[in-house]
TrEMBL record, chain A:
Function: Allows the formation of correctly charged Gln-tRNA(Gln) through the transamidation of misacylated Glu-tRNA(Gln) in organisms which lack glutaminyl-tRNA synthetase. The reaction takes place in the presence of glutamine and ATP through an activated gamma-phospho-Glu-tRNA(Gln).
Entry-linked HAMAP family: GatA (MF_00120)
Protein name: Glutamyl-tRNA(Gln) amidotransferase subunit A
Highest taxon, organism lineage: Bacteria
Domain Amidase: 24-472
Protein source organism: Falsiroseomonas selenitidurans
Keywords for this protein: ATP-binding, Ligase, Nucleotide-binding, Protein biosynthesis
Active site positions: 78, 159, 183
Enzyme class per UniProt: ligase
UniProtKB/TrEMBL annotation, chain B:
Official protein name in the record: Aspartyl/glutamyl-tRNA(Asn/Gln) amidotransferase subunit B
Enzyme type, top EC level: ligase
Family, similarity comment: Belongs to the GatB/GatE family. GatB subfamily.
Domain of life the protein comes from: Bacteria
Record organism: Falsiroseomonas selenitidurans
InterPro entries registered for this protein in UniProt: Asn/Gln-tRNA_amidoTrfase_suB/E, Asn/Gln-tRNA_Trfase_suB/E_cat, Asn/Gln_amidotransferase, Asn/Gln_tRNA_amidoTrase-B-like, GatB, GatB_C_1, GatB_Yqey_C_2, Gln-tRNA_amidoTrfase_suB_CS
Keyword annotations of the record: ATP-binding, Ligase, Nucleotide-binding, Protein biosynthesis
Assembly information from the UniProt record: Heterotrimer of A, B and C subunits.
Database matches in SMART domains: GatB_Yqey (SM00845)
Function (record text): Allows the formation of correctly charged Asn-tRNA(Asn) or Gln-tRNA(Gln) through the transamidation of misacylated Asp-tRNA(Asn) or Glu-tRNA(Gln) in organisms which lack either or both of asparaginyl-tRNA or glutaminyl-tRNA synthetases. The reaction takes place in the presence of glutamine and ATP through an activated phospho-Asp-tRNA(Asn) or phospho-Glu-tRNA(Gln).
Domain Asn/Gln amidotransferase: residue ranges: 335-481
Reaction(s) the record says it catalyses: L-glutamyl-tRNA(Gln) + L-glutamine + ATP + H2O = L-glutaminyl-tRNA(Gln) + L-glutamate + ADP + phosphate + H(+); L-aspartyl-tRNA(Asn) + L-glutamine + ATP + H2O = L-asparaginyl-tRNA(Asn) + L-glutamate + ADP + phosphate + 2 H(+)
Enzyme Commission (EC) number: 6.3.5.-
UniProtKB/TrEMBL annotation, chain C:
Catalytic activity line of the entry: L-aspartyl-tRNA(Asn) + L-glutamine + ATP + H2O = L-asparaginyl-tRNA(Asn) + L-glutamate + ADP + phosphate + 2 H(+); L-glutamyl-tRNA(Gln) + L-glutamine + ATP + H2O = L-glutaminyl-tRNA(Gln) + L-glutamate + ADP + phosphate + H(+)
Keywords: ATP-binding, Ligase, Nucleotide-binding, Protein biosynthesis
The protein's enzyme class: ligase
Xref: Gene3D superfamilies: Glu-tRNAGln amidotransferase C subunit, N-terminal domain
Name this polypeptide is given: Aspartyl/glutamyl-tRNA(Asn/Gln) amidotransferase subunit C
Function: Allows the formation of correctly charged Asn-tRNA(Asn) or Gln-tRNA(Gln) through the transamidation of misacylated Asp-tRNA(Asn) or Glu-tRNA(Gln) in organisms which lack either or both of asparaginyl-tRNA or glutaminyl-tRNA synthetases. The reaction takes place in the presence of glutamine and ATP through an activated phospho-Asp-tRNA(Asn) or phospho-Glu-tRNA(Gln).
Enzyme Commission no: 6.3.5.-
Family affiliation: Belongs to the GatC family.
Keyword match Nucleotide-binding: yes
InterPro entries, sorted: Asp/Glu-ADT_sf_sub_c (IPR036113), GatC (IPR003837)
Source organism of the structure: Falsiroseomonas selenitidurans
Subunit and partners: Heterotrimer of A, B and C subunits.
Amino acid sequence: MHPTDFTLRGALDALTEGTISSVELTQAHLDGIAKLNPRLNAYVTVTAEKALAAARASDERRAAGQVGALEGIPLAIKDLFCTAGTRTTAGSRILDSFVPPYESTVSQKLLDDGAVFLGKANLDEFAMGSSNTTSASGPVENPWSRANDPDTRLVPGGSSGGSAAAVAARLALGATATDTGGSIRQPAAFCGIAGIKPTYGRCSRFGIVAFASSLDQAGPVARTVEDCAILLKSMAGFDPKDSTSADLPVPDFARACERGVKGLRIGVPKEYRLDGMAPEIVALWEQGLQWLRDAGAETVEISLPHAKYALPTYYIVAPAEASSNLARYDGVRFGTRVTEPGSDLRDLYERTRAAGFGPEVRRRIMIGTYVLSAGYYDAYYLKAQKVRALIRRDFENAYAAVDAIVTPATPSAAFGMNEKQDDPVAMYLNDIFTVTANLAGLPGLAVPAGLDAQGLPLGLQVIGRAFDEETVFAVGRTLERAADFTALPRLRAGA
Amino acid sequence: MSYTIEGRTGPWELVIGLEIHAQVISEAKLFSGAATEFGAEPNSQVSFIDAGFPGMLPVINAECVAQAVRTGLGLNAQVNLWSRFDRKNYFYADLPQGFQISQFAHPIIGEGAVEITLADGVTKTIGITRLHLEQDAGKSLHDQHATKSFIDLNRSGVALMEIVSEPDMRSPEEAGAYLTKIRQILRYLGTCDGNMDEGSMRADVNVSVRKAGEGFRTRCEVKNVNSIRFVMQAVEAEARRQIEVWEAGDEVFQETRLFDTARGITRSMRSKEDAHDYRYFPEPDLPPLVLESDWVEALKAALPELPDVRRARYVAMGLSPYDAHVLTLEKETAVFFETVAKGRDAKLAANWVTGDFFAALNRLKRDVADPPVTAENLGALLDLISDKTLSGSLAKQVFEAMLETGKAPGEIVEERGLKQVTDTGAIEAVVAQVMAANADKVAEYRSGKEKLFGFFVGQTMKAMQGKGNPALVNEVVKTALAG
Amino acid sequence: MSLDTATIRRIASLARIRLDESEVQQAQAEINGILGWIEQLQEVDTEGVEPMAGGSPVAQARARLRPDVVNDGGQADAILANAPDRQGEYFGVPKVVE
């Protein structure tokens, strides 16, 4: 077995048994990166030397009997997580030279558990996008391609496209990601892997470059549901440095994966049966529900009456918060500065921000600025936050009758790199199934569940109650086991 | 008669409201663990949070919240158990995040009121609209380089209380008295040191003018005025400017202005021209600030005595309202006075503190916090007066010696033999000598020229080098002359 | 609602993003497209609804307070390390006229 083909769980077992070392495991991944990253562009920065040094240190710890929960496991870190001493760009030109002197809480927790960082994963600029085509470091390619059209390069989804592509192509055993409107679940689905956005407050946001503070949540992507559970256990936990971090114990998520779904009531939101939805998506959804019934769950139709307003709500709240969060990129304390001879401060700001931000980021900053501006706040931002409260209430009502909700993860499989690029609204519709969980702060897991007619992966989504990731993992693992998803992307290490 | 400024078209009234920015006394900043100390090396008291680095998040300092609540209680104001932070968005070189975290829609403290006392003894109530917590910005230095401004973020993130008044003031004097009063209350509470030189208190002054009987006209805001005297000057300068504008047939535009202290005028602030659309929205990085009423009650129970209460207590002790006012202006003065007065005649103590002691402070340019004689020694001096060891005039001599030497009064009396003579026999002997030497005057007195009485007292005291007990000397002279 | 080019320029100015003339037109079309799509929110009845204040799924979320302890700062070099124009112990910017 090629070392990059391990699941994270399998690699941990092999390390424990001594059949492989962290250095060997890390080197195998670095070899894969050297070979495939020039094409996939999943990594923005590869920290090969640091990774090997960390792997050696891990092997020494293991030899000395100090074994962390992720001891020796090579991971990719989305380039939105600040990493001390390693350049952190957020996929933006405006941060292309930024070296944080501090470590994000989540990545620190992974390091504390013995993980090895291979490098920083590509992403949509400031995590704004659903195709990973807005990165200043160039687009990421999905390692999958259409069976009947292998030459058309596909997007990996976004914004965590680099994380998802790296994991799918066996260039990491798992990766950190973030999800503001679907940025973990949509790329996971497009790349045929699993990914969970936990409950808002489960993972600390400290040290993660902010996009939209009330929606951003970190989570893992990995090739199995259990691997996600292992990673989330390490990433999650109360952090006094994040005022929105939840002061709750972190359950044993991996154990919850094996709970089964017997007796669970699974909600099926009728509003998600969209007109014109692809028949294969409808079929996959129905298949997933059948698998759950077969495993002893009951499926119940529920109503989320305000779900159809989720995307427009999101496209007010997220840009508004982003317009404020991104005001700090002004070319004064860090990052790229652009001036002309004789520039005054204002000119410095305007040139720096025009040159430093890409078109999608500029567009969202402008929308956010507009919806917060004098005279429009009530009509847009306040209205959106009220609709958001209604969406949250819809879920509360639904969870009176069900334990989890299952939906498709995305309205389609991965699309071509040149598709949907001219119409922002068409691009935004990618998040139609995922965005409600962000607005309501709820956990959502994407599980690979099947292939479309062209052999591209499709995913299902499990949404749970607040802080009930355990049920989400139990449902997700049941779907995963039933789906028995064994298809492989064409581009992958060890192939 | 209310205060007016006379223009070409007649008298104008002034309408003044103040927004006072008071730096909260706390060890660490409002949202970060960096220190708040004044005068540190540039950028040495800065966390990545204060500098607005990527991924940094605010966490609220409990003590800053407690200080705001104490201040609210001291201003007789409503404490809001539910409040919230908002972002005020604007770009400025010393505003690292591109927004200020403030409380816009839901301040921690609501309406309150303070009473000010004016020079003529008249009191007036000034309404407090609100008090909210916010973070300070950094500092721009414009004089370090020919073409650049330098940014120091040490102050960035320090907790400020913004105390907003109603537009209740009508004269520069009232504005000055209000700022003085707020400063006094905050210093008593220990929530702000009131040090205006170091910028820990500054005021934005809102001024408009109007004809008698009118509603409000357009106001202008004079930003960052940093002394009580300048506030009074800025009010007058800005009011005169506006009167000129109106009288020239023009319109006053709402704008932000700066007070040029050197020239005594206000001028428009270029950098704030388009900063008016602040795009406030709730700070998503901070959940609402919810206080427990028990906690607020505990803070209330532990509040120090406030100046108004203290002043009333002094009046009840027999002090004149004026002395009570003067002695309570500064907490340190009141504490000094109370040490002097403890177990002694309060009026005598007040006379000495407001009289000779204040005069000495003035003359020696000293401060009550660093007094040239200690309260204990001044108290001991009063004891020597009360037990008749010293007469009033001797006491003044001893006080001067205390100022010079710093010694205790008992020691000085001992060394210099300044003890008052209360031995009636000794006084009688001196009076007899004086009468013998002035037999003609004795005769005159006895024939009805009674105003010569003072002459005999004076001669006796002179002969005794001022050490005779004045009351006894009077008595003995009277008896002796009566023959 | 449709934004005119003057509004687009004003927003860009508020956001401190320089827009060339050619970009104004494009931004106008894109932003109006998005705003037009967002407009559907107005049909939701939100009478009497408390707006959500943050992202917490728990409606009664409240801020946690930290003790007043100095445990940060004293790192001027790290603070200044990424500065595009470091001037000694300060950040440098073009001279600001107040």
